[in-house]
Amino acid sequence: MVTTPITAASPTGSSYTGPIIDTDVHETISSWKHLAPYLGEPWRGLLERGAWTKPGAPFAYWASHGVNRADSFPDSGAPAGSNYELFKAQVLDLYPIKYAILTGQFMPGIMEMQFEFASALASAYNDWLFEHWLQKDERILTSIHVAPQDPQAAVREIERLGDHPRVVQIILPIAQLAYGDPFYHPIFEAAQRHNLVIGLHHSSFVKGAMGRGRYYIEWHVNVPQGAMSLLTSLVCNGVFDKYPNLKFNIIESGWSWLPHLLWRFDQNYRSLQQEIPWVKRLPSEHILERVKFSTQPTEDFDAQTWLRLIELLGTDRLFVFATDYPHWDFDAPNEAIPRGLPAALKSRIFYENARELYGLEQARSV
Amino acid sequence: MVTTPITAASPTGSSYTGPIIDTDVHETISSWKHLAPYLGEPWRGLLERGAWTKPGAPFAYWASHGVNRADSFPDSGAPAGSNYELFKAQVLDLYPIKYAILTGQFMPGIMEMQFEFASALASAYNDWLFEHWLQKDERILTSIHVAPQDPQAAVREIERLGDHPRVVQIILPIAQLAYGDPFYHPIFEAAQRHNLVIGLHHSSFVKGAMGRGRYYIEWHVNVPQGAMSLLTSLVCNGVFDKYPNLKFNIIESGWSWLPHLLWRFDQNYRSLQQEIPWVKRLPSEHILERVKFSTQPTEDFDAQTWLRLIELLGTDRLFVFATDYPHWDFDAPNEAIPRGLPAALKSRIFYENARELYGLEQARSV
């Protein structure tokens, strides 16, 4: 949903005036060279000499106007999402945001080679983030970045930073890594121990069942398949049974496919559970209890369709609001969530569900 | 849905007693060596000498009881689905089947190498099928097999057999071939010219967004992703615009994911259509007008959920009944379709939609 001008008088375009938690804010760094002071050698030299190739997007172009909101670039010419003050003006202060959870645009998990550098970059980025974003605003909470392709290094990073009071999540890219594989379980063990949510965010390295297709739109339509495959992988490989307190947020991968997946998954479980005896409950029970879904991008359907889908799912506890700032398909709170939804449901979507997921305090009046 | 004993008195378990079209019957051949007389050299010798490797399943086992109904094996020890008389007793005569459409278990499209052999096998199998199945029962209609990896050979096969009055469809496997690619368009041109439906059936070579996963259940839960990706590929690459009379049947890949796909696809089209200017209509318009979905496997939900999904889709014209005989998750007509559905909808699902799709005559009383 594309943003349009907001009137301050009616910041959510509806009767909802309560607090908001934005669960998907893509801050970035104005130049990767700024990570150099946070790196040891040989990584620092690679960055300073411009040797790092940086993972590129597989498409020649995203949307015709690029991947970011046209108005999200600082006057300095720095990248969209790299300026706290602009983010503050365009999101934090414009809407009644109680908390915004940073998810980054930097996904060390998509580096397919030279894993040690990925782990070093993750740590450097986390240090930079603490210094340059967390200090600036008490409303800002963050994910920490790890390189899941090296689980032992990822665990060390979680041990190092996981108890910081403003760290609420470990962010992992949805790419080609099926995290259900026991190879990744040490990361989940550490996350549970530090009471951190696992945030699973799509990346440009996710593929559909037939790869990326020939066009950006093909790739983008099929992005949710990554989340479907990942949930299947997590359930079948016993992650939900093995880590009973671990919670997940599926970010920017949609959610209207969920009724289908739960029906199909439960039906298959009833017929085929002998293959995965360590999975002790219906897949739908595991998922509905332990996984949230960020709302952006919700398809453009009306309040009645929202309510029907909630009825089919049997719960209003699944959804957590997100803007996806500064990306082109930014969801403004007053537009993405239909006005006709009941007030109690809006409170769940904009605030309560995320508050419970991330273990945050009850909102004071905003 | 697992089959259970049928009482002849109530063949559809409900008030529906009208005719049925079964759009997915997996006949097979009792020994591949029986194709030898239909092949020229060097292919005949490869078959006779047992040199053909035959594509194997990627899993060590399917369901714990194998891939077929336990009662579907002929006493001779031949493969399930290879005996017309048993099929007649277990499906054709047991239910009021007006037409059954053969789809085979042989998918030359999944042969990833040595394409000329795939094309030769496709032709040989078609010839064998005409002689050994089509002759036996007027209720039997068939798909023809082609090797889409060699489009020119596929077109020749369509020219050779496409006008046979009992041929209604070209069957293509859902595997790793994204048929929207212009490389495959000659097949669609020939299919439209001969007024044949394109049947797209999942194969064990379909993958999810993260491959097959570690377990059969993971793979099986994610099978619909192949159909999602294929529809996206067909629409974005202009197949629906370029071949305005061509129709499709998505077989054995489910359908309850369709509301999600249409919402997401339309939303993306509204934002990104400049990338694919040859697509002149909303994706949902193309798909709802031109694509049917075989019902098997429908998830185990009740009549009310069926009706809600139809309401979300806005049409009852999408579904065509299928048993998937002789596979383990066979859908019996009296069990797979909930009794509580309105009679007119049952008539649509069991008969009318497939009759219209395949251009068949109005049923006489059965």
UniProtKB/TrEMBL annotation, chains A, B:
Keyword tags: Hydrolase, Lyase
Gene Ontology CC: cytoplasm
InterPro entries, sorted: ACMSD, Amidohydro-rel, Metal_Hydrolase
GO BP term (any one): secondary metabolic process
Signal peptide: none
Pfam family, one: Amidohydro_2
Residue ranges occupied by any Amidohydrolase-related domain in the UniProt entry: 80-360
GO MF annotation terms: carboxy-lyase activity; hydrolase activity
Name of the protein: Amidohydrolase
Annotated organism of origin: Ktedonosporobacter rubrisoli
